[in-house]
Amino acid sequence: MTPMPSDTVELAPIVCCVDDGFVRPLCVLMQSIATAEPGAAADITLLVIHQGLQEESRTAIRSNADRLGISVDLRLVPPPDPRYPAFRTGSDATYTRLAIPEVIPDHRVVLYMDVDIILLQDIRPLLAMPLDGAPFGAVPDPTKPVLRLGRALPGWQDLGLSGDREYFNNGVLLVDIEECRRRDFFATASRLLVERQDNLRYWDQDAMNLAADEDWLRLDRKWNTFAFSPLVQLGGYVHRGEPVLPLARLLAEEETAAVLHFAGPRKPWMCDYPDNPLRDRYLRLLQMTT
Ligand SMILES: [Mn+2]
């Protein structure tokens, strides 16, 4: 067992960004905090950033948080810059994370998480992890761990970037807000999102990778483990990252994951998701929400 941080170590709050369509997955994520480690929920502060949620959504978030003993704080942000590229799939809530420095003036470090995530282990060791001067910590994206093996940042060669440059997934980010502010990181990513759209495929994630200039802390892979077995089961998945991160290794990592990320367009709450033990796990958590 990892020794638990005592009262002297401040735990970073968790930050999630949602619109009405992602409230149920957020409730599942909250449920998983408590199910993974029953003692953890009472230590968690959850900041929910949104662009205007319906009353019903706010009630669902508050009642699930109360039931689990999680402190929750809903914060309203203005809509994103209209010059940002439009998503074919996904939602504008994705861009809400770029507003973290403005909407969270009262914490130095936060853990941003997508809501297509469930926790399988105690999250507190990550919430207490020192960043040692790095602006943020992340995990290399297993589907495109380095530029040359993926389709991220099209035209990266012309931008003078190396093909071996590591590329992070932005679904889990341990952010030192003060350090990011000092480096103008979020503002730079926002500007690139408007100005460099020809070089962006995975919009905000590409913009953040470009803005980060390789200067980020590599977190243990267990803090952002992708659910690969359902993707493989579906067929048609081409694993471009094989030379750097073999698929067999990634599948084995599902067993040791602390944070399980259902990345990609298919989500475990959708009816077309393949039957799979990870989906069963997801649906059990979903049934526990109120
Ligand atoms: Mn995601």
Spatial strand sequence of the major β-sheet: 3-2-1-4-7-6-8
Annotated CATH homologous superfamily: Spore Coat Polysaccharide Biosynthesis Protein SpsA, Chain A
Number of E-state strands: 10
Q: C-alpha Rg, in Å?
A: 18 Å
Distance between the termini: 31 Å
| Cofactors, ions, other ligands | manganese (II) ion
Low-confidence stretches: none
How many domains make up the 3D coordinates?
A: 1
The 3D shape can be described as globular
Summarize the structure.
The protein is of the alpha/beta class and 290 residues long. The protein is built from ten helices and ten strands.
What this model shows, in words?
The protein has about 290 residues and is an alpha/beta fold. It has a single domain, classed as Alpha-Beta Complex (Spore Coat Polysaccharide Biosynthesis Protein SpsA, Chain A). The chain is about 30% helix and about 15% strand. The protein has helices at about 25-35, 55-70, 100-105, 125, 175-185, 185-195, 205-210, 230-235, 245-255, 275-290, and strands at about 15-20, 45-50, 70-75, 110-115, 115-120, 135-140, 170-175, 215-220, 225, 260. The strands form two sheets. A seven-stranded mixed beta sheet has the order 3-2-1-4-7-6-8, sandwiched between helices. Strands 5-10-9 form a three-stranded mixed beta sheet. Strand 1, helix 1 (about 25-35) and strand 2 (about 45-50) form a beta-alpha-beta unit. Helix 1 crosses helix 10. The longest helix is centred in the first third of the chain and has 14 residues, at about 25-35. It is globular and about 50 Å long. The mean pLDDT is about 95. Bound molecules: manganese (II) ion. Manganese (II) ion binds near residues 116, 171 and 263.
